[in-house]
Each structure stands twice: as C-alpha cells, then as structure tokens.
Amino acid sequence: MYANTIAHKDLPLGTKVELKNPRTGQTTTAVVTDRGPYVAGRDVDLSYGLARKLSMVEDGVDSLIMRVL
To answer: What does pTM read for this prediction?
Structure first.
C-alpha cells in the first residue's frame, strides 16, 4: 500500500519508471508489480503511497507523465 509500485497492462513486471505530475511538478520513481488497470482511459494504477507523493489522493485521478528508466 505504501510502496512505490504501479500496475500496468503491458510493461514487464519489474520495469522501473519515473512518474511526474505536471500539475504540481512532483516526480518519483516506481516499479511495475501488477497488471491493470482495467478501466477505460487509464494507463496505470498507483499505490496509495505514490498517490500521496504525487498529491493525487484528494482527486483520485490525474494526468501523469511516465518515462521508462
């Protein structure tokens, strides 16, 4: 729940990525550890810890920039 992990449909498990919230300028790194999301229009699911680091807890959904490391 608090780890820097994400779910992604296609990236191999263990892939490291950098996530940036362009609205706040906050950046953090994460590792793909699960599959999903299975909601149309969404590319990744974040752990609660990452959502907190990227100031997304209040809104629940936001646009991010993701870069594979």
So the answer is: 0.90
pLDDT digit string, tens, across residues 9-19: 999 999 999 99
Phi, psi values for residue 49, rounded to 5°: -60, -40
**What residue type is 13 in one-letter code?**
L
How many whole angstroms separate alpha carbon 14 and alpha carbon 41?
23
Residue 3's contacts (CB-CB under 8 Å, 6 or more residues apart) are 33, 47, 49
Distance CA 15, CA 52 (A): 21
CA-wise closest residue to 43 among 25, 23, 69, 68: 68
Per DSSP, 48 falls in state H
Name residue, tokens 């807890």: 57
- CB atoms < 10 A from the CB of 17, how many? 19
